[in-house]
Design brief:
Length: 302
């Protein structure tokens, strides 16, 4: 009987030591869990939203700043966007409306813009905080910090068209690139003058349509409704512009027949010739406007 009681006592003592050991082990593990862990590094995403500024570091003073994204955006935090300018090496926030990044247009979900009344020849800095932009796939942007400078007024040209033959009908002039992209537009005023400002140096063409319904845009025809497209006219000369020069031209829309107005270069609308191939882009018979205007504005700088 004594032997049995002694055995039970030894087993109870052994169990007590096991519990004590487990408690010590648990306490050690609890202490080891207090070691600091770099949770920020663990939280870094596998991928980031690609959101880049389009164009070079020179911003046009009359255009928005444009951006491109690799995916549509689900959320834009306006408070994460800051625009500053510098005077005497001191950065100051721009005054007025809070800078906002918005969709550029309804035709592309990957293009965005920021509107602002830019000062000429001024250095700006755009900052977008991290996770200020969220893509539709749940990824965010890295911090964005971009410095840029606006162009000078001397970098641009101005074109003055004195137009005859429209008989007080509302009309709009479109300045075209050689590929017929619309670069700028201007309404024709009551005196027949259209002014296109802030035009970068280059080669251009001009087209005008009579805005018969006065809606500010070109209206195509409708065969079923028997509606004719709005009349269109081309300025028959190529326009070469240099910076810091004004150009004035007289435009009689009925000087040439309609089928002879469109310049041959854009009439062909051919792609550039490949290397090693001859190109007939230049039409020797086409009249070209001199690089510097011949009117009262032609020889005068800004």
């Amino acid at each position: 009987m004594k032997r049995a009681r002694g055995k039970k006592a030894r087993e109870a003592e052994a169990r007590r030591h096991v519990r004590t050991f487990q408690e010590k082990v648990d306490s050690v593990l609890a202490i080891s869990d207090t070691i600091a862990i770099d949770t920020f590094a663990l939280m870094q995403p596998d991928s980031w939203l690609s959101f880049t500024i389009q164009g070079s570091g020179s911003q046009d003073i009359h255009k928005p700043m444009y951006f491109s994204s690799d995916q549509p955006l689900k959320r834009i935090n306006d408070n994460a966007v800051r625009l500053e300018f510098t005077t005497d090496s001191i950065w100051k926030p721009v005054t007025g409306t809070q800078p906002r990044i918005t969709p550029a247009d309804s035709t592309s979900l990957l293009s965005f813009r920021l509107e602002h009344q830019w000062r000429p020849e001024t250095k700006y800095r755009l900052a977008v905080d991290s996770i200020g932009l969220e893509g539709i796939y749940g990824v965010y942007n890295k911090p964005i910090l971009q410095e840029f400078t606006t162009k000078s007024l001397d970098d641009y040209s101005t074109i003055y068209f004195n137009i005859t033959g429209i008989d007080s009908i509302p009309a709009i002039v479109e300045l075209l690139s050689p590929s017929e992209d619309i670069i700028a537009t201007a309404k024709v005023d009551d005196s027949g003058k259209a002014v296109l400002r802030f035009i970068s140096p280059g080669t251009y063409y001009a087209r005008m349509f009579l805005d018969m319904d006065n809606n500010g845009k070109y209206t195509t025809g409708n065969l079923l409704q028997r509606i004719q497209p709005e009349p269109t006219f081309y300025f028959h000369k190529k326009i070469n512009l240099k910076k810091n020069w004004d150009l004035e031209q007289t435009w009689d829309i009925y000087e040439l027949p309609l089928d002879g107005q469109k310049p041959a270069e854009i009439k062909k609308n051919k792609p550039r010739a490949k290397k090693g191939e001859n190109s007939d882009y230049q039409n020797e018979d086409e009249e070209e406007i001199p690089e510097f205007g011949t009117g009262i504005f032609g020889s005068q700088p800004y």
